[in-house]
Amino acid sequence: MLILSGRVYCGAFPKFLYHQYNLQLVDLSHIQIKEGFPSWLLHNNTKLEFLYLINNSLSGPLQLPLYFHTNLSNLDISDNCFQGYIAPMIGTYLPRVRYVNMSGNGFRGSIPSSFGNMSLLQTLDLSNNKLSGSIPEYLTIGCISLVELILSNNSLQGQIFSRTFNLRFLGELQLDGNQFTGSIPHSLFNCTFLRVLDLSHNDISGKIPWWLGDMSYLEILDLSMNNISGNLPSNFCHTNIQKLYLSRNGLQGSLKDAFYGCFELIVLDLSHNNVTGSIPPWIGKFSQLSYLILGHNNIEAKIPIQLCNLTQLSLIDLSHNHLSGPILPCLRSTSNSYRQQDGSYNASAPVSMDEPLEFTTKSISYSYQGSMLSYFSGIDLSCNHLTGRIPTEIGNLNEIHVLNLSHNSLTGEIPASFSNLHQIESLDLSYNNLKGSIPSQLTELNFLAVFNVSYNNLSGKIPDVKQFATFDESSYRGNLFLYGCPLMKNCTEISLPPSKSRTSIENKESSCFIDKDAFHASFGVTYIMVLLVIAAVLYINPYWRQVWFYYIEVSTNNCYYFIIDNLAFLSKFRFCNFCK
Predict the structure, then answer these.
(1) Residue 337 reports pLDDT greater than 80
(2) What DSSP string describes 233-295?
(3) Beta strand 353-361 with 364-370: parallel, antiparallel or unpaired?
(4) In this predicted structure, what is the pLDDT of residue 258?
(5) What are the TM regions of this chain, as residue ranges (predicted)?
(6) Please, are residues 405 and 426 in contact by the beta-carbon 8 Å criterion?
(7) What span, in angstroms and rounded, lies between the C-alpha atoms of 202 and 221?
(8) CA-CA distance, 75 to 105, in Å (whole number)?
(9) pLDDT of residue 310
């Protein structure tokens, strides 16, 4: 056994390794080896069972040993710089391998059919390479023990599987980020133990097959970014499914019967489809739901009161629909990490999310995934037909990061309770019918990076302190009675008719001048602090103190001799003032 993972920086294989012949486990991961694949290591150590070379700088082709190696069980060469083709006979030379991970390299060409000779293979990960062609039929027939097949982010194409399919124990199938076409193969129905099915970011067409709802072990289904069409299947869910990603397809129909019974759902993403009808009341039974993404559809009617029963919600995106009525004052949005700290976090909910979710933040659509989602929360109700006042209770969402209520018909004033949104980074209330002034309490929102109240009926002076001094004119335009920086107009300009506004025009920038007293005070404090820091450094460090006084002495002597040698010249042109 030899384990040097992450302990030393080698650059090359240790020389003593060339003289080892009875090793069973070798782990040389994370030590930046910059050579080729050590086929000699397999040739010298016929009893070797585990070989881990993860995250190095190994390059060149994958060279097989000279003879069959029947004892190797685990081979992991992920996250290196290997290139070229995967050896066509790899399955013949390594017939008893159970785990193969070659992800994160530069392999190209087709997947060798000889993988089908690995009858004991349980995990095959070839993701994040440059592989092309189709999935070999012999692989789907011969790898009878395969549990995980991960081919994500390559250039594979064609039909996913042929009819001759024998992967009955398959539990995880990830084919996302390729160019597969055709429909979802019926042969997957035989994978009764399938837990994860990710076919996203392909060119798959057709309808969602009804039998996917009968796969009782299925927990994660990702069909997003395809060309799937047709109505949402009715009675689709079994109780085990937790994450459902169907965004950016051509799905249509009503939600009424589609997902009833999916009571363990944590993620429901149906954004960018043609879903119609209303949000059904039974959604309030999804007690585990954390991410509800229904934006960019044709959903109408009011927001159901049952949404208030969902205490685990982190992200709510109902934007770009036809929702009407008031905003529910009981809506919730809290990050998973906050619920965990608060003691109300559900242990069954995931700490991190592997699949990305799109959410608009700071006017830009971002993809969030992994642990980032656990620390993120937001509500987006923009681009609907919502009416009424903004509930003051929304200000109680003190852990929310994004709130977007723009492009509705909301009335009333901006609630002063928004000053409690201590973690908010983006607040968009633009294109409504809000009136009154901008509450001065909002200047206490220290993390606010994007603020937009444009095209309302707001009035009064714009706050010009703290982060509000950084927002530009686009945040406030379209409000006739707002004045101050950065709109470059004051209250006098608003009260006078245009023909008599010369005085206000001449003074329109007066509110934008820098306070000179504050500038002088801050400059003086900064200057004193710099002197104190220099004095502290010289006091603490004897070496620098000695260097400092030596430098002063040398400078004084130079100045003295300069004056003596050039006294006449300096007197004539009065350069004595220059030395002061």
Answers:
(1) no
(2) PTT---TT--EEE--SSEEEEESTTTSTT-TT-SEEE--SSEEES---GGGGG-TT--EEE--
(3) antiparallel
(4) 87
(5) 518-540
(6) no
(7) 14
(8) 14
(9) 93
Q: Picking from 286-295, 326-335, 410-419, which range would have the lowest pLDDT averaged per residue?
A: 326-335
| Residue 7: per-residue pLDDT | 65
Q: How far apart are CA 163 and CA 468, in angstroms?
A: 63
Q: What is the mean pLDDT of the chain?
A: 86
Looking at this protein, which amino acid is placed at residue 387? T
Whether 221 and 199 have beta carbons less than 8 Å apart is answered as no
SS3 call for 187: helix
Environment class of residue 159 by beta-carbon count within 10 Å: exposed (0-12), middle (13-18) or buried (19+)?
Answer: middle
Phi, psi of 26 (to 5 degrees): -130, 120
State pTM to two decimals.
0.80
Nearest to 391 by CA among 477, 268, 305, 475: 305
Q: Which of 89, 88, 62, 65 is nearest to 76 (CA)?
A: 62
pLDDT per residue as tens digits for the range 496-538 = 444 444 344 344 344 434 556 667 777 888 888 888 887 887 7
Region of 362 (left: φ > 0; alpha: ψ -120 to 50; beta: rest) is left
Return the HEC string of 546-569.
HHHHHHHHHHHHHHHHHHHHCHHH
374 in Cβ contact with 358 (< 8 Å): no
Which span out of 74-78, 259-263, 556-560 was modeled with the highest average pLDDT?
74-78
Backbone phi and psi for residue 315, each to the nearest 5 degrees, phi listed first: -125, 130
CA of 423: how far to CAs of 336, 361, 375, 378, in Å? 14, 14, 11, 11
Handedness of CA 154, 112, 159, 196 (dihedral sign): negative
Please enumerate, as own/partner, the contacts of 242-246 that have beta carbons within 8 Å and a separation of 24 or more.
242/266, 242/267, 242/288, 242/350, 243/219, 243/267, 243/353, 243/355, 244/268, 244/269, 245/200, 245/221, 245/269, 245/355, 246/208, 246/221, 246/270, 246/273
User: What does the block give as tokens for 153?
Assistant: 């982010």
Instruction: Give tens-digit pLDDT for 223-241.
Output: 999 999 999 888 777 668 9
- Reported in sequence order, the residue ranges of 304-396 that DSSP labels E, i.e. its strands, are 315-317, 322-325, 353-361, 364-370, 378-380, 385-389
- What is d(CA 146, CA 84) in angstroms, rounded to the nearest whole number? 25
The CB density around residue 145, as the number of other CB atoms within 10 Å, is 16
Distance CA 457, CA 450 (A): 20
CA distances (Å), 523 to each of 114, 467, 529, in order?
74, 21, 10
Residue 197 reports pLDDT greater than 90: yes
Q: Is the peptide bond before 486 cis (omega within 30 degrees of 0)?
A: yes
Please enumerate in sequence order all residues whose Cβ is within 8 A of that of 49, keeping only pairs 6 or more positions apart, or say none.
24, 25, 71, 72, 73, 74
6 vs 309: CA distance, rounded Å: 48
Identify whether the C-beta of residue 247 lies closer than 8 Å to the C-beta of residue 269: yes
What separation, in Å, do the N-terminal and C-terminal C-alpha atoms of the chain show? 75
DSSP string, 135-156: --HHHHHH-TT--EEE--SSEE
Relative to beta strand 353-361, strand 402-404 is unpaired
Low-confidence winner among 183-197, 457-471, 477-491, 564-578 (lowest mean pLDDT)? 564-578
Largest distance between two CA atoms of the chain: 105
Q: What is the pLDDT of residues 561-574, one digit of tens each?
A: 777 766 655 555 44
Q: Which of 290, 319, 288, 318 is nearest to 304 (CA)?
A: 318
